[in-house]
């Protein structure tokens, strides 16, 4: 049976399971990591795993590691007031509003490739302003998304810095490129495993940028 979320937590007042069920998610619940592993065998989880480490009075490191080993393609979000475990994908601190928690979850909603712009390994979801690459999924700023969309449509062709700047910012003033450089750096951080040695978003010295799809 398909479920949006697997939530592992001890019963508490205002539990994450209750809150997220109320806003429309289908939830599979477990009270221990071991029980969560059993639930993974019985249900297809489409979004992610949520580990409420606070309710279980643990740092969650061992639980995250076992969950990742069992379901390596599922993101693990940990709700904790301690440091993020190495195997957790997302750390959410207490006090975050339910709206912001939902935004974090929605970032990992299933990808419908029919509604994405694609170039090689790169999938851009304009509606949710997110990008999927082998590194994972990341949220983009509005201008970061516009830059990536423009480069995707160029399909690997060199785009001058001046052209990119005028197209995205709708201006003919190109004497100050610092804004462009900042957005390109942020975009690299989102899509590159090693932004200092980029594989996808390449700079051609003194000319501009091009997007390498693979």
Quick rundown:
The protein has helices at 16-22, 33-42, 53-56, 61-70, 98-106, 142-154, 161-169, 178-191, and strands at 2-8, 27-30, 44-52, 76-79, 90-92, 117-119, 122-125, 130-133, 136-139, 159-160, 201-204, 208-211. With 214 residues, it is α/β, with parallel strands linked by helices.
Question: What is the topology?
Answer:
Elements: E1 2-8, H1 16-22, E2 27-30, H2 33-42, E3 44-52, H3 53-56, H4 61-70, E4 76-79, E5 90-92, H5 98-106, E6 117-119, E7 122-125, E8 130-133, E9 136-139, H6 142-154, E10 159-160, H7 161-169, H8 178-191, E11 201-204, E12 208-211
Parallel strand pairs: 1-2, 1-3, 3-4, 4-5
Antiparallel strand pairs: 6-7, 7-8, 8-9, 10-12, 11-12
Helix pairs in contact: 2-4, 6-8
What does this molecule look like?
The structure is a single chain. By secondary structure, the chain is α/β, with parallel strands linked by helices. Helix content is 36%, strand content 24%. The chain has eight helices and twelve strands. The protein has helices at residues 16-22, 33-42, 53-56, 61-70, 98-106, 142-154, 161-169, 178-191; strands spanning 2-8, 27-30, 44-52, 76-79, 90-92, 117-119, 122-125, 130-133, 136-139, 159-160, 201-204, 208-211. The strands form three sheets. Strands 2-1-3-4-5 form a five-stranded parallel β-sheet, sandwiched between helices. Strand 6 and strand 7 (122-125) form a beta hairpin. Helix 2 runs parallel beside helix 4 (61-70). The longest helix has 14 residues, at 178-191. The protein is elongated. The mean pLDDT is 92.
